[in-house]
Amino acid sequence: MFKKLFGSQNGDDKQENQNYEQAEASNDNYDNEYQEVEYDPETLHGTHYDVEDFDDEVAERAEAWIADERESGEDLDEKDIQNIYFNYRREVYTEWNNCDSDQMIRFEHANSLKYTGVQTSGFVKVADGNPFLEPVHGIDLRAYTAMTIKISAGVDYLEVCKAMGIEPAVWEELNTIWPQRMAQDTSFTVTTLFGQYFAENVTLPQLENVNAEISEEGAANLEKIRTDRYFYEELAGARQAAYEYGIDGAQWILENFGINLADFQSAAMQWMTEQNQNWSSDDIHHFHDYQQGKQKEYAAKFAAEQGGNIADDVNF
Amino acid sequence: MFGLFKKQKEEETNPEWYTELQESQERWFTFLEKLEAKMEEFANAAIPELKEILQTDDDLYKRTFHKVYSGVNGQLSNIREKARDTYEEKILNVYYDYNSQISVLSKHHNVVSDFRNRCSDRHNDFEDKYDYWRNQIETTKQRDLEIEYQKILDEYETIKDKFHCTQCGAGILIEKIFLIETYITCQYCQTQNTFAPSTLSRNLQNIARDLAEQRTAHLYQEFETESGKEHALYLQRHELSLSKIHQSDKKVLSEIQSKMDDLDEQRKFAVKNAPKLRQIYLRAMYDEWNKITPDLKEHNEKMYQNQITQ
């Protein structure tokens, strides 16, 4: 298994040295002609090479390793092979673009469908004629999402059906078939797209006058969680803390900030998509810590309201 | 400072800061004991109450139960957090402090690392207890879905021949448990009627999979046991391989080797057999599921195909 790593000890010295020289040479080259790597906006591949060459290089390295493993008697299944390709893809990408791991993750997100068969929110690619996206009773995924948003915001489904001009029985079928497609689709295209539409808060002309009641304060808070990431993280932390104190967090947000569950989830999806597109581990840690801090603050508040936590009297 | 540069003789006795570490360790042990007692007392009170709430919660989605359940878990995690924070503040910080001042070459260095190891082992024991109670609380969620299924079947029996055509009033037989609102044509006047199933029978699709899993749990268990064998057999073989290191008797060595080969065979068998058992379980579970909700069969079979190729 470690044959490759220890190859130089088995008389492979010459080749090792050549590799070393090559590496040195290319580093020199890099130093002399330093320039910012330009990325293709769609694939996030560096524009200084062909995608085909990249895939070939990955395949070459991966296949060599696979052959080596098999020679030494390892049993490799499909998953192992996928992992080997996955790792070499990272290696070659980082090498060829001389980039950090954040850029590498952004690249993986942008190419997740191509390389792993799974969509990533913010980078959904839809092929023509995908049977999972065929409209059901004339209602496409976008329209279905728009209806779902209204209903989860608290509008009666009968009212939504009336505005759309469909029978309630049809809605029930839509509401069975679309979720079934989401479950069946192993590329998660339907689910991811649904989430993206949800984040965009899509609507239809027919539904524009069908709205859940929202207070003035609620509308202002809603605007704020969509534009102010800190405020969103604070409410997400508060909601989590509420659940831990036996309070329905979603209801608590509605009562105290006037934001309903649909709008809250929509904002959550929006920030998640944004995070995928502009992947930065520093930012992720920063906001994670901020949310945790807020969760603790609210937990203390809920605990005080409930007369404390059960282990408050135990001290070190 | 810390007696590091004193003479050999003094090094043999315990350093003066030894008592401080000892005191911290004792406090830590007592602190965790108290937290464990709280946890036990709390869980013992909560478990019967949760079971009671689940029984009496008439809500289809058991919302009251879930609220209380998550509140109970919240208190438990609160205790765990308290232990973690205290460990960091009162144990790890003290450890780092001394560790940075006492050379690894000092014969007292092991006092510092022993302190950390004992406290960390104790913390792990606490975490195990936390997991135990967490699992105990988790079991309160379990409910016998056969009872709920029976209620749905009983209701269906009473309503199936009580539906009438809105136009001509003829009786229309409800031929199966419908999961959603459905159009049914009157066979006498051909009017399309809308049949709306009750909330209870609509809920069938929410419990169907869990019920099928409940009915095939023994097969799942067989699969789980088989997939756990791989690691256990590997460890057994590894231990034998270690025992060879100091063995020179050829006869004993060959005995060990043959045992190792045997374990390896068993391990290879388990690796190949586990996926088969998984498939047996999945097929049986989906068959049950299809029996409970035949309307979902087409969809479920696609899900099954996805799952076995994963």
Number of strands of chain B: 4
Strand content of chain A: under 5%
Q: What is the count of helical runs of chain B?
A: 10
Please give the order of strands in the largest beta sheet of chain B. 1-2
Q: How far is the first residue's CA from the last residue's CA of chain B?
A: 62 Å
Q: Uncertain segments of chain B of ≥5 residues (pLDDT<50)?
A: 4-10
What share of residues of chain A is helical? 55-70%
Calculate Rg of chain A over CA atoms: 26 Å
Written as H for each helix and E for each strand, in order along the chain, the element string of chain A is HHHHHHHHHHHHHH
Show unreliable segments of chain A: 1-33
What features would you describe in this structure?
The complex is a heterodimer of chains A (about 325) and B (about 300). Chain A has about 325 residues and is an all-alpha fold. Chain A has 3 domains: about 35-115, no CATH class; about 130-205; about 215-305, no CATH class. Chain A is about 65% helix and about 0% strand. Chain A is built from 14 helices and no strands. The model of chain A is unreliable at about 1-35 (pLDDT under 50). By secondary structure, chain B is mostly helical. Chain B has 3 domains: about 10-140, no CATH class; about 145-200, no CATH class; about 215-310, no CATH class. In chain B, about 75% of the residues lie in helices and about 5% in strands. Chain B has 10 helices and 4 strands; from the N terminus they run H-H-H-H-H-E-E-E-E-H-H-H-H-H. Chain B has a two-stranded antiparallel sheet. A two-stranded antiparallel sheet of chain B has the order 3-4. In chain B, helix 5 crosses helix 7 (about 205-215) and helix 8 runs antiparallel to helix 9. The two termini of chain B are about 60 Å apart. The interface between A and B is medium-sized, with 25 and 33 residues.
